[in-house]
């Protein structure tokens, strides 16, 4: 497989790349606030049913857009599951391991171990998408991971099961991002088809799982369904779930899976900064604050160099690239460059 087989972000204009990243960061921040309101302020009992609502919203919006010819993607046929495989499995694995690790880990350790998603995404882009990264981008990623480790260094309680779940969650998240980028080039599918059919193939199994675990019953018997503020927040969460998924696909399309992951990390650090001054649930320590600052600095440096690059600039720096590339010899067997 030749290097850079997938469309590179430098082929898109700098503004499109920047705006798609900002759109993703903004969408992620808004849905975090809305979900926290639904689950914490209103005490809605089911994460799973919120996810089902977001899948249904995705299906309704995209189907309506397809019927009105606002967007286009191919009709369903038996080739669709093969075209989007393994994205549905990665999504389910990501969801299950994410919930399990959230329950078992403290917030500081959850934060630091989630940053390994960035490193895993970089490695998978090298092996699956045959990408290369400049030294400056590699060093900025290392700075993000190092900063997260510093931030959590005061909370080093070791739990084998919890660590296993969070590292699996990192792997599922990284693989999902990289395969989303890869599948965006699939003929007849595109951004909208990828979103629509991924939700379509997941909604029924998720609904059955929700019914089996009792989550669906708890959600249906929730007493605040008659309260307009709750209904408004729940519907907003459903719609923002679609917006968030679209923003992730859009950011991955115009940039890279790694850039999308880094943008998410920057957003999370920004939320932590806000938590220092708003909310009252942040326990300040200089070690944690220093680690967050290193994380944010690494993320900003990564963003600066990523969005500064153009096609010409990238070619000019070719001699200085760190060659984390897997090449092929004349027999077709992989060999390290």
Mean pLDDT: 79
Strand order in the sheet with the most strands: 1-2
Largest sheet: 2 strands, antiparallel
State the helicity in percent bands: over 70%
How many extended strands? 4
Tell me what the structure shows.
With 337 residues, this protein is mainly alpha-helical. 72% of the residues lie in helices and 3% in strands. It contains 14 helices and 4 strands. It has helices at residues 14-41, 47-67, 80-84, 87-104, 107-114, 116-128, 135-151, 160-183, 190-213, 215-220, 228-254, 257-277, 286-308, 311-316, and strands spanning 133-134, 321-322, 326-328, 334-336. The strands form 2 sheets. The chain has a two-stranded antiparallel sheet with strand order 1-2. A hairpin with a 5-residue loop joins strand 3 (326-328) and strand 4. Helix 1 (14-41) packs antiparallel against helix 11. The longest helix has 28 residues, at 14-41. The radius of gyration is 21 Å and the shape is globular. 39% of the residues are buried.
Describe the structure using short key phrases:
mainly alpha, two-stranded antiparallel ribbon, disordered C terminus, globular
């Amino acid at each position: 497989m030749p290097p850079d087989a997938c469309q590179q972000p430098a082929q898109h204009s700098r503004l499109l790349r920047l705006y798609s990243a900002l759109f993703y960061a903004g969408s992620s921040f808004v849905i975090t606030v809305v979900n926290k309101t639904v689950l914490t302020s209103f005490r809605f009992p089911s994460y799973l049913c919120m996810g089902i609502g977001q899948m249904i919203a995705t299906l309704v919006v995209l189907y309506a857009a397809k019927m009105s010819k606002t967007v286009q993607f191919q009709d369903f046929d038996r080739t669709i599951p093969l075209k989007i495989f393994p994205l549905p499995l990665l999504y389910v694995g990501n969801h299950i391991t994410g919930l399990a690790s959230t329950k078992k880990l403290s917030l500081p350790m959850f934060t630091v171990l989630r940053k390994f998603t960035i490193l895993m995404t970089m490695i998978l882009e090298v092996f699956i998408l045959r990408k290369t990264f400049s030294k400056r981008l590699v060093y900025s990623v290392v700075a993000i991971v190092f900063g997260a480790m510093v931030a959590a260094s005061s909370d080093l309680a070791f739990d084998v099961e919890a660590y296993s779940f969070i590292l699996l969650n990192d792997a599922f998240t990284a693989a999902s991002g990289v395969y989303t980028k890869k599948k965006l080039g699939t003929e007849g599918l595109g951004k909208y088809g990828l979103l629509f059919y991924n939700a379509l193939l997941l909604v029924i199994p998720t609904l059955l799982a929700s019914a089996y675990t009792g989550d669906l019953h708890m959600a249906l018997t929730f007493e605040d369904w008659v309260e307009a503020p709750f209904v408004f927040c729940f519907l907003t969460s459903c719609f923002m779930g679609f917006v968030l998924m679209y923003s992730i696909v859009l950011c991955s399309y115009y940039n890279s899976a790694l850039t999308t992951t880094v943008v998410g990390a920057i957003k999370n650090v920004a939320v932590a900064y806000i938590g220092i001054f708003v909310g009252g649930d942040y326990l300040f320590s200089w070690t944690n604050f220093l680690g967050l600052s290193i994380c944010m600095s690494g993320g900003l440096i990564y963003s600066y160099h990523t969005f500064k690059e153009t096609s010409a600039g990238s070619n000019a720096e070719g001699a200085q690239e760190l060659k984390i590339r897997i090449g092929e010899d004349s027999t077709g067997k992989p060999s390290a460059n």
